[in-house]
Every structure is written in structure tokens, then in C-alpha cells.
Amino acid sequence: MPKEIAVYVGENGKTTDLYQQGKVMIYQRMQGRWSVSREKDFSLGENFNIKALRDQMSELVDFLGSCKTFVGLSVTGIPYFALEKSRCSIWEFEGNPVEFLDYILAKEEEEQKETVVQNAVSPPVPVETFSGCYRISIKEIQEKNLGVTSKQALLPFVRQGKFYSLEVLCNHIPPWLENEILVNGMESRTEVIGKNEIKLIITKPCCN
User: What is the reported pLDDT for 117?
Assistant: First the structure.
């Protein structure tokens, strides 16, 4: 199947913020060349009502169809979560699509090959330290090529939500985790323990 990459561009043909007026361009690579297979005018407008945003993003996801790579100047908040939930890989790039399409394609093909190895590796899991309270360190995952990502180690556990508090030791807070905290209405605080060492404590507003 030909590879497709969706790019969100402004009037100048360069990538723009998803909260700005723009157009979604679906690029398709066939016989070594990129061409636009379809396009759609798109705007989230100035109404940042959560339901309205989700409805608009649902329309965008439907338009993307089988295209599972999305590029914009900035993709955050509910739009990021909606695209990720639809299993899109999300990239943030500045410039004209022709400048980075080949780079993204090469990186994605490289990641697909690594996935074969990653599937053979068991990621670390949160350990319960007290009733409903868990702890996990993802520092080693972030600092070494273990064949496992922080998302693989944590996302299933976070989305299950079967915890009251989760303590995450890391060298930086992954953007995907920040979005999960925001979208799911959880609370968090950070403590700087040392150089390249942060403790992120995630809690729910109430204990079920």
C-alpha cells in the first residue's frame, strides 16, 4: 500500500498550529514521488468547548481514514489525544511538507522495524507500595535503548485507572503523559530530586 502522511498547513503552504485556520493535506508517496491525494479545509475556531472540540476532531479523524501519520506545527491538548486515540503517530515540524516528508517516512519505517524487537521485551510495570498507591521508574527506559518506550510501559496502566496515586521517576516528563493527565482530569505535582531526575506524582481528585 502507498504511504500516506497528513499535514496541517496554513495559507502560506507551511505547517501551522492546529488551533489556527488551515487545511489538512493528505500526501501519498508512489513510485518515489509525493503528491496530494485529498485535502480538507479545517478550523477548530475560537470555541474551545470540550464537546465541540471532540466532535470536530472526530470529523477530522474520519477524513484521515487509513492515514495514520499526522504533522502540524503544534498539536496539543484534546486534538493530540483524539489523534493518538485513533492510533495516529503525531509529529511537530515547521516548514514546507516537501522538506520533511521523506524524513518522517524513513523514521516511521525504522520504528516499525524496532517494534519487532520491542514485542519480545517485557516493559517494567508499576509496583504497588500501599493500597491503591503505585510507583514506577522510567529513567532507564528514557536513558538507554531497551527496546521499550515509556508509553508502552505506562499508558495501559494509566488508562485502566485502577490507582489512587502513581509515582513516576523520570529524567523528563513525556508529553503524552502530560496530555493523559489533562484529558482525564487527574492532578499532578513534580519534585526535582537531582540532575536529570524528576519525581512526578499523579493523583485522582477522589478515591473510588
Answer: 53
Residue spans of the domains in the chain: they are 3-119, 127-203
Instruction: Find out if CATH 3.90.550 is the number for domain 127-203.
Output: no
CA distance 14 to 8: 8
CATH superfamily of 3-119: Dinitrogenase iron-molybdenum cofactor biosynthesis domain (3.30.420.130)
C-alpha distances in angstroms, 81 versus 128, 177, 180? Answer: 27, 10, 8
pLDDT in tens, 39-83: 999 988 776 688 888 899 999 999 999 999 999 999 988 899 999
User: Would you state the pLDDT for residue 208?
Assistant: 46
- The CA-atom distances, in angstroms, between 185 and each of 51, 71, 85, 204 are 15, 26, 17, 8
3-state SS, residue 79: helix
